[in-house]
Structure formats: C-alpha cells, structure tokens
C-alpha cells in the first residue's frame, strides 16, 4: 500500500503522491494541482475535440448523454472517432454483439455462441467505407502509384516511411490486385525429373516480428477491406498465421505472419510458391529469423527460379528506421558488383545512419508549437525538446534508374515523407535512478493533467515490473479525487493469453475511464493501440546476450537504442496528435547506440545454423547473411550440432537433425525429443519440455511470507527431490489428472500460472502430433484427464540422462570448496533460489537455463551423476552406473 501520508489528488496543495525517495520527488512537484478537474472552462474551450470530450465525459454529463447517445445525431467528435478508431463508431450504437474485428453482427435466435453470429455484411462494408477517408489521408496514399510502378519494373523495393505513415496496413492493399500477383499454374520439373503442374503466387505475405502485431494488423486490414476475420472465418481476403493460431480463409490474398512462421513454411515450401510477394516489415529489429529470411529471399531473387517455374518473387523491405545503405547492396543484383561484404553490414548501416541523423535535426514529428497543457511545466515535463528524425537518407546513387524506371542494381527505393499526426516529446531534466518510481509519478501527473479521451501506453522492461507497477497504480488510484477519471490498467506482455493481449488493444468500455497500458517492447513496433495519445518510455529493455566465455545466454536490462526510442515514440499520434514523455534526459538519448546489435551477432547461433541446414544450405559459412557472426561461433555451432548427431561428419543434416529442426523448439530440446524416443521416455520428455517452453514461468512467486508458507505446503506434493525436471513432470501430470473445471482452482492453490499450464498443454499436443507423424511416437496418448502415475526411479534416471545428453554444456560438478563449477569452462555457477534444489550440495547438477544477475545462476536445476556427464561427453549412450557409485 502507498504510505498513508499520500493525499488524494486534488486535495489541494500537493496532488503528487509523496515518495520514499525524496531526491526523485524534488523537481517533480505536481504542477497540475490547481489545474485538474473540470472547473476551468477556459481551458476546455480552447481545447481540441479530445479535450472537449473530457467535459462531456464528466460523470454527470456523460451519465445522461450516454443513455441517449444512440438516439442523438452523431457529434463531430464521435464521427472523427468512428473514422479514425476501430470500435468507436459502434460504441455509440450499443450493438448486441461486436465481432472480433470490431464489426456488429446479428445473433441467430436461440443461440448465444459467438460463432453463430451472422456478420452483417452491410455493417462490415459501411465500416470499410468509413475508414476510406482516413486511409486516403495517410502519407503513404500519395505514393500508391509510385509503389505499384516501381514493383512492376523491379523485384525488390526498399520502403522507408515514418512511423504511422501507413506502410504495414496499406502496402499489401496497394499490391494484391497487381497483374504480377495473380495465381498461375506452371509446369515445373520435380525432383524425379518429371513434369508437374504447380500453382505459384496469388498471395502476399507480410512478416511481423511479433504475433500480436501480426494479428492486430490482419484484423485492421480485414476491417479496411470490408471482410470478416475471426477464428471461424472460412472465406476472406485477409488471413494470419502465428503459433497456435492460424486463420487462412479461402480466397486469401494478404497473409500476416510472424517471421518464425514464414521460416517454418519454408521447410515444406522452400520456393515460397504460394506467394507472389513477401513484405518484410520492421526489418530494423534484426531478429535472427529476419536475418535468415533476408538471406533466403536474396537466394530466391537472384538464384535459380526453376522451383517457382521462373516466376519472380517480389520482395519489399519496410521500416521507419531502415538501414538503407547496407540493404541496398545486400539485395542488389550480384552482376552490378555491389560492394556488399557479408558480415560487415551492421557497421556500414550504423555509420550511415548516425551520419544522417546528425545531418538533419528538423523536427518532423512536431508542429512546432508548445502544447497548451505543458507550456509552463516544471519538473520532468518541462524540458520540451524536439525529436530526432527517424529517417535515414538513401545514398544518392542507389536511386539511379533507367528511362523505364528500372533500378540499375535491381533495388528500387521509396521514401514516404511525413506522418498523419504530430507527436511532441518531453525529456527528464536529470537522470533518475529508479525508473519504476519515476514512471508511477509521471503516470499520475499526466493523469491529472491530460483530458479524456486519451489513453496512456507505458513501456517497461518485463512482466515483473509491469505486474508490480500495475499493483502500485491501482493502489494509488484508490486515493484519487473521485472527480478525476477512473483508471484501468491493462498489462501487455508476450506471455499473456491472446485474449488478455487483445484486451489491451480494445477501447475501454467503462465510462469516464482512462486506459493505462503497461507494455514490454512487444508494443514497440507495428502496432496501433487504440485510444493511446500519450506514450511514456522508461528507456530500457531486456536484451538477450550471449556470453561466449560462459557459453551461455543471459537476459540483461539495458538502455534502449535510438531506433527503439523512435519506434516507441511512434506509438503515439496514430489516431490523433500525441505526446511522448521520455523518462530519460535528452543527453542520454544522444548517447544511445543507434540500434541494437543484430540478434545473430549476440546469440548462440546453433538455432540459426540448424535452420539453414534444414532449409537446404550446405555451406552455412557462405550463406548470405547481412551480418555474419564470428566464424568461431559458427564453427562452434557446427561442432555442437555434430555432437548432438544433428549433422554427420560431412556436415550433412542427419535424420535426427531433420527432426530436431522440425520442432518449434530450441535445438537442445529437439535433441532431447530425439534421444527420448530412443530411450523410451518420449511422453515424459514431452511433458517436461511443454512446461519449460511454455511462454511464461509456470511457478508463480509468492508475494508474502504467509502465501509462501501456504504454497510450500501444497507444493510439497509436486516438488521432486531430484530437481526441477521431475517437478515439471509431476506438475503437468497432476494438472491434467484434474477435470477441466477444477484446473483453475488447482492452479490457484499451488500458485501455478493457469495460463502457462494451458499453453503447456497446447505445446504438448502439438509435439505429440509431430512425433506421431514422424513415427517416433506409436500412438497418441489417451486424452485427459488421466490418473496420476509416478514414474519408477529407473525411469526418472533415464529421463534425466536423456536431458544430460542434450544439455551437457549446462552441467556443473561440485568442487572441493563446496561450490559448483561448470563442466565445460570451469566457471562458478550457483543454484538459483527459484529451484527446488536451492541450497543443496550435490555431486553434479544439470541446469537448463542461465541468468547472470549479481552472480552466475543456473535455473531449472536437476540432480545428476558425474558419470552421466562423462558418458554424454564421450558420446557413450550406454554409460550405466548405479546411483551413488563413485
Ligand atoms: N488497429 C488499428 N486501430 C486504429 N487505427 C489503426 C490501426 N492500425 C492502423 N491504424 C491507423 O493506420 C495508421 C497507419 O498504420 P500502419 O501500421 O499502417 O503504419 P506504419 O507506417 O506501418 O507504422 P509503423 O512503422 O509504426 O508500424 C495508424 O497511424 C492509425 O491511424
């Protein structure tokens, strides 16, 4: 609870809550204490439509107004909302049902099941019509013909446009009717040399770094095109594919999908035959998958097109913060001799980008006027400053075209200037050590000052911070002056259920309420969170870092890059002019790295190498990567794959390797599955892997001592003395022995994430099916619930040995000084407090994850035997020794 001394906001002199940290309170006295509320009518009368609405939304007025809104003529504000916002048009009419794409539907009498809603076609088309005007006003609309022309004459287009200019939603819609986008029946020669007729093209793929962006963009584009899109859609022009959720309707022309899904599709369709074009969106994120996709696309554009019957694949690369120089040379026709050097692009990009950022400092996002609300501020918002331009100019020669508009190097380029709405940026005056505390205060300062409608989107580093801040905001909100708008806090992070994620995007339904979305960087690119006017950026994010010395990956909290700062800022000003409040100084921004190092250069590349091999790349060292990791790292990955039997002595993918690559899992878990199939513990191994690779932690941490004692009591029944692997096995089996309707209670009792368990069950089902189709699982296990069966001690050891085989690099032995040292590298490692083995001294341990905080910790730890490790290192699968034997 916040300290009692906190006054209610609006109680008079000090509206800002007091802080335990006096230094951060200084200079942060709430400047709005006398200006909030609805009395100062002069402010409201000066306001724009949004501010006027704040008055309309005061409880008294809105109470009356809302009841009659459906009858009232549509106000100009409501009309504006309807045009710009996804749901606002219908919120006035109180439909009985709203379809997942935000469009009204009719319910068939006698049923209330959502699938039974017949979409009201007229309403859908009217919604699309209403959006037309807003679409026509997007900056990219002016480039429509140019984009079409360039792609008629060239196969590659680099499209650089500012955040919110309309790239993701409009580009595929400009292209799907193009003549080159028609599906064609083509005769090709198949592997056996025989002629075969295949369909090529007809669909445009557009990749997104994250599932939430793929789904929300698909829904928006469907709405703009006047078609339905939900899980029951059978016919329609727009679809999407993300893990565990694919909607691919008949007649689909545009498909949003995650980068991982496109790579997965390439396993079965290496020539991407179903596509006429692939749009790679947000390439600046430089995930490992996008780097691999870029390499494969380069091979498809410039290589042998026989697999596509000679039909070219168009490639469009898009970003607001695109590194153009390197990409131009990367995709250029080899015969034009671009000065592309694999593995060296990141530095080239960086130099060009920094040079360009320094060259031009005009504020392209700002309208140049001080915003009325912040004109006389003190404290963190006082230092109003102009934002850095997010664009990077393309070097002159690259746009050179012949008279027909054909780019000499095959790579066309378009820069879309401007965005629809302005964004004002504000910086902290001085650095603050506790960004969470700073965020909390800023949220309330702005809440008091900012009119409704106007939701906030706050960027934080991870789930824990988000959940902590959510509780704090909700506690503080209880103390607010009741005249102020209510607050609804919506978390948004990767491991939330899709429905919970979607809720953060929906317009808030409660009256006189401000939505405050607390997000990780999953909301950083591509997305439009409806209703958001203000972005608050903590300036940090969690970054995965490979530590070659330790041979392990860790998650580190780091300042974001300039590119991320621009993207975060770009989440404001999408439906109306906005503000971005940065919880760092202008100087700190100037010192930011231009961009994040590409993932492939800071990660263990074993996954990348396996993915390349599985997609037919024999010579991985010469695969065209924009940036190639250190040759030593690549060789190490090849060696690891060889040790795992994924590749043979000649570097050719083995059957085991093919299987490993087919699971949507890190290579080592794939290896566990292959090994478990041999050791007759496949079903058990799948249960454990499903829990571990669920997208959030299964075991929740008790928040109080009381909770801890209670949970410990319940968890005694699932905690296993041999460690976390067997604890996961017990947990999943105890969970699925419960009837569906009891599972939530069971999870609550054991403080287990019900959401994570549901995901684990889905992963488990997917793995059972894949293994069955690979014939390593004879039959699918009987469906749940099944009675709990404890494995025999020998079965437990077999399972642990199987994991040791795949994770031998993550084992440690007890040293003479009572500390664990890793088997490879001899580095000290400690058992993490979250492990059931915390504090135990054992002969040897296996840990599946590693984190580096104050110390080097192993997580998900199991007790193993030194001779199993030795056996695994020697590749001796049959190294048998009884427990306790020295
Ligand atoms: N889900 C949505 N709800 C409401 N408006 C949306 C939605 N998606 C897009 N828009 C509108 O369309 C505009 C263009 O969005 P789009 O995603 O195409 O831009 P973009 O150039 O790809 O931006 P970014 O580079 O930030 O991803 C937004 O600024 C917003 O006005």
UniProtKB/TrEMBL annotation:
<keyword id="KW-0347">Helicase</keyword>
<dbReference type="GO" id="GO:0005524">
    <property type="term" value="F:ATP binding"/>
</dbReference>
<keyword id="KW-0378">Hydrolase</keyword>
<dbReference type="InterPro" id="IPR011709">
    <property type="entry name" value="DEAD-box_helicase_OB_fold"/>
</dbReference>
<dbReference type="GO" id="GO:0005730">
    <property type="term" value="C:nucleolus"/>
</dbReference>
<keyword id="KW-0067">ATP-binding</keyword>
<dbReference type="Pfam" id="PF04408">
    <property type="entry name" value="WHD_HA2"/>
</dbReference>
<dbReference type="GO" id="GO:1990904">
    <property type="term" value="C:ribonucleoprotein complex"/>
</dbReference>
<feature type="region of interest" description="Disordered">
    <location>
        <begin position="360"/>
        <end position="405"/>
    </location>
</feature>
<dbReference type="GO" id="GO:0003725">
    <property type="term" value="F:double-stranded RNA binding"/>
</dbReference>
<dbReference type="Pfam" id="PF00271">
    <property type="entry name" value="Helicase_C"/>
</dbReference>
<feature type="domain" description="Helicase ATP-binding">
    <location>
        <begin position="148"/>
        <end position="340"/>
    </location>
</feature>
<feature type="domain" description="Helicase C-terminal">
    <location>
        <begin position="442"/>
        <end position="616"/>
    </location>
</feature>
<dbReference type="GO" id="GO:0016787">
    <property type="term" value="F:hydrolase activity"/>
</dbReference>
<dbReference type="Pfam" id="PF07717">
    <property type="entry name" value="OB_NTP_bind"/>
</dbReference>
<dbReference type="InterPro" id="IPR001650">
    <property type="entry name" value="Helicase_C-like"/>
</dbReference>
<dbReference type="GO" id="GO:0045943">
    <property type="term" value="P:positive regulation of transcription by RNA polymerase I"/>
</dbReference>
<dbReference type="InterPro" id="IPR048333">
    <property type="entry name" value="HA2_WH"/>
</dbReference>
<dbReference type="InterPro" id="IPR007502">
    <property type="entry name" value="Helicase-assoc_dom"/>
</dbReference>
<dbReference type="InterPro" id="IPR014001">
    <property type="entry name" value="Helicase_ATP-bd"/>
</dbReference>
<feature type="compositionally biased region" description="Polar residues">
    <location>
        <begin position="16"/>
        <end position="49"/>
    </location>
</feature>
<protein>
    <recommendedName>
        <fullName>RNA helicase</fullName>
        <ecNumber>3.6.4.13</ecNumber>
    </recommendedName>
</protein>
<feature type="region of interest" description="Disordered">
    <location>
        <begin position="1"/>
        <end position="95"/>
    </location>
</feature>
<feature type="compositionally biased region" description="Acidic residues">
    <location>
        <begin position="395"/>
        <end position="404"/>
    </location>
</feature>
<dbReference type="InterPro" id="IPR002464">
    <property type="entry name" value="DNA/RNA_helicase_DEAH_CS"/>
</dbReference>
<dbReference type="Pfam" id="PF21010">
    <property type="entry name" value="HA2_C"/>
</dbReference>
<dbReference type="InterPro" id="IPR027417">
    <property type="entry name" value="P-loop_NTPase"/>
</dbReference>
<keyword id="KW-0547">Nucleotide-binding</keyword>
<dbReference type="GO" id="GO:0003724">
    <property type="term" value="F:RNA helicase activity"/>
</dbReference>
């Amino acid at each position: 609870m916040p300290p009692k001394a906190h006054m209610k906001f609006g109680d008079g002199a000090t509206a800002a809550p007091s802080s335990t940290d006096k230094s951060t309170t200084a200079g942060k006295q709430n400047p709005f204490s006398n200006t909030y509320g609805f009395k100062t009518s002069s402010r409201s009368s000066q306001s724009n439509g949004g501010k006027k609405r704040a008055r309309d939304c005061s409880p008294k007025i809105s109470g009356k107004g809302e009841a009659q809104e459906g009858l009232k003529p549509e106000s100009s504000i409501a009309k504006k909302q309807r045009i710009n916002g996804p749901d606002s048009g219908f919120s006035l009419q109180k439909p009985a049902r709203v379809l997942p794409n935000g469009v009204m539907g009719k319910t068939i009498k006698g049923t209330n099941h959502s699938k039974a809603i017949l979409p009201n076609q007229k309403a859908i088309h009217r919604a699309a019509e209403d959006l037309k005007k807003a679409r026509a006003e997007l900056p990219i609309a002016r480039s429509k013909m140019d984009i079409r022309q360039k792609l008629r004459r060239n196969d590659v287009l680099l499209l650089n446009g500012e955040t919110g200019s309309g790239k993701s939603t409009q580009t595929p819609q400009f292209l799907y009717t193009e003549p080159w986008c028609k599906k064609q029946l083509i005769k090709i020669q198949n592997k056996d040399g025989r002629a075969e007729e295949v369909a090529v093209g007809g669909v445009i793929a557009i990749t997104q770094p994250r599932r939430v962006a793929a789904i929300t963009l698909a829904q928006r584009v469907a709405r703009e095109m006047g078609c339905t899109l939900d899980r029951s859609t059978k016919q329609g022009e727009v679809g999407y594919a993300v893990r565990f959720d694919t909607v691919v309707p008949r007649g689909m022309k545009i498909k949003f999908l995650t980068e991982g899904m496109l790579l997965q599709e390439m396993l079965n369709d290496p020539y991407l035959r179903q596509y006429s074009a692939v749009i790679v969106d947000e390439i600046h994120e430089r995930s490992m998958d996008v780097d691999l996709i870029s390499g494969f696309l380069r091979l498809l554009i410039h290589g042998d097109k026989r697999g596509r019957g000679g039909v070219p694949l168009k490639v469009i690369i898009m970003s607001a913060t695109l590194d153009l120089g390197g990409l131009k040379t990367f995709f250029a026709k080899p015969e034009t001799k671009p000065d592309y050097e694999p593995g060296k692009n990141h530095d080239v990009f960086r130099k060009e980008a920094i040079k360009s950022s320094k060259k031009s400092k005009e504020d392209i996002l700002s309208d140049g006027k001080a915003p009325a609300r912040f004109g006389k501020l003190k404290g963190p918002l006082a230092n109003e400053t102009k934002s850095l331009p997010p664009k990077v100019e393309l070097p002159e020669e690259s746009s050179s075209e012949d008279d027909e508009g054909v780019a000499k190097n095959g790579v066309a380029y378009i820069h879309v200037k401007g965005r629809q709405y302005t964004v004002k940026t504000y910086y902290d005056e001085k650095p603050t050590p506790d960004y969470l505390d700073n965020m909390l205060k800023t949220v309330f300062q702005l809440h008091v000052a900012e009119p409704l409608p106007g939701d906030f989107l706050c960027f934080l580093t991870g789930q824990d911070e988000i959940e902590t801040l959510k509780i704090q905001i909700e506690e503080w909100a209880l103390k607010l002056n009741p005249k102020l708008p209510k607050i609804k806090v919506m978390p948004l992070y990767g491991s939330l259920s899709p429905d919970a994620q979607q809720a953060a995007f929906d317009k808030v339904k409660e009256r006189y309420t401000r939505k405050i979305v607390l997000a990780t960087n999953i909301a950083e690119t591509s997305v439009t969170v409806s209703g958001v006017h203000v972005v608050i950026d903590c300036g940090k994010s969690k970054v995965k870092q490979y530590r070659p010395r330790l041979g392990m990956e860790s998650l580190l909290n780091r300042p974001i890059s300039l590119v991320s700062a621009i993207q975060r800022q770009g989440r404001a000003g999408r439906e109306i002019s906005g503000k971005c409040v940065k919880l760092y100084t202008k100087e700190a921004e100037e010192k930011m790295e231009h961009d994040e190092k590409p993932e492939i250069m800071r990660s263990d590349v074993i996954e990348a190498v396996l993915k390349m091999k599985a997609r037919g790349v024999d010579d991985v060292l010469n695969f065209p990567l924009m940036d190639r990791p250190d040759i030593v790292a690549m060789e190490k990955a090849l060696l690891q794959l060889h040790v795992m039997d994924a590749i043979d002595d000649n570097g050719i993918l083995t059957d085991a390797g093919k299987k490993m690559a087919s699971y949507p899992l890190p290579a080592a878990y794939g290896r566990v599955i292959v090994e478990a199939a041999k050791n007759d513990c496949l079903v058990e191994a799948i249960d454990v892997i499903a829990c571990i690779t669920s997208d959030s932690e299964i075991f929740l941490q008790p928040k109080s001592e009381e909770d801890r004692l209670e949970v410990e009591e319940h968890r005694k029944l699932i905690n296993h003395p041999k460690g976390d692997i067997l604890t996961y096995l017990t947990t999943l089996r105890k969970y699925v022995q419960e009837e569906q309707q009891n599972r939530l209670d069971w999870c609550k009792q054991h403080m287990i994430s019900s959401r994570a368990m549901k995901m684990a069950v889905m992963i488990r089902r997917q793995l059972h099916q894949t293994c069955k189709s690979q014939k390593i699982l004879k039959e699918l296990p009987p469906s749940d619930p099944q009675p709990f069966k404890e494995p025999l001690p020998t079965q437990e050891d077999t399972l642990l040995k199987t994991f040791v085989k795949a994770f031998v690099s993550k084992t440690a032995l007890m040293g003479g000084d009572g500390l664990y040292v890793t088997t490879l590298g001899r580095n000290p490692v400690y058992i993490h407090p979250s492990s059931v083995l915390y504090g135990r001294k054992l002969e040897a341990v296996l840990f599946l994850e590693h984190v580096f905080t104050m110390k080097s910790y192993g997580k998900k730890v199991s007790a193993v035997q030194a001779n199993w490790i030795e056996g695994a290192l020697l590749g001796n699968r049959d190294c048998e020794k009884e427990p306790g034997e020295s």
